[in-house]
C-alpha cells in the first residue's frame, strides 16, 4: 500500500469516569468538540485522524454492568486505548483486573494489538505518575503486544498527541510489515 491513509479500528476502554469520552472529545477538531461530554451508555463510535491514520474509535462503557460488552469488539480491534484515572488510586486494582481479563480473552491473547495506556487526569495534584500507574497495572508483564503509557489530561489535551502519535506509528508499521 502506498502513501494512503491507514484505516484502524481502536477500542477505547477503561473504568467508568476514567475520561474516555472526554479524551475522544479532545481528539476532535476544535470546531467539532462538544462543550459538555456525557458518560457513554453501552457504546458509541467516534472518528479522528492522526499521523496518517484514520481511527474509527469505539468508546465502550466502563460501568461495571456494561464491561461484558467489551469482548464483543475485541476481534475487530486493530488497537486498544486503555484509559486510567491516575488520580483514583483505589480503583487502579479494578482497572488492572479488567485489563488482565481483556488481555487474556481468546480474541486478544497472542495478537500483536498495540496497547496505549493513557494515565488521564495526570494534572490533578494527587495523580500518580505514568511510571507508578504502569507498575500498578503490571504492564511490564505484557509480552505479546507493543504497549506504551503516557500521562495526559483529556481536559487540557496535554500528553494526548504523544500517545496517539505512538499508536499511529505502531499501526503504520504493522500495515507495512504485512
From TrEMBL:
Extract the Gene3D superfamilies matched here.
P-loop containing nucleotide triphosphate hydrolases
Which positions in this protein are listed as binding Mg(2+)?
21, 40
Please, which domain of life does this record's source organism belong to?
Eukaryota
Keywords in alphabetical order, please. GTP-binding, Magnesium, Metal-binding, Nucleotide-binding
Keyword Nucleotide-binding set for record = yes
Q: Which InterPro entries match?
A: P-loop_NTPase, Small_GTP-bd, Small_GTPase_ARF, Small_GTPase_ARF/SAR
Pfam families assigned to the protein according to its UniProt record, in alphabetical order: Arf
Q: Which GO terms describe its molecular function?
A: GTP binding; GTPase activity; metal ion binding
> Where does this protein hold GTP?
14-21, 62, 120-123
* GO BP annotation list: establishment of localization in cell; system development; vesicle-mediated transport
* Family per similarity comment: Belongs to the small GTPase superfamily. Arf family.
Return the protein name.
ADP-ribosylation factor-like protein 6
Tell me the organism.
Pararge aegeria aegeria
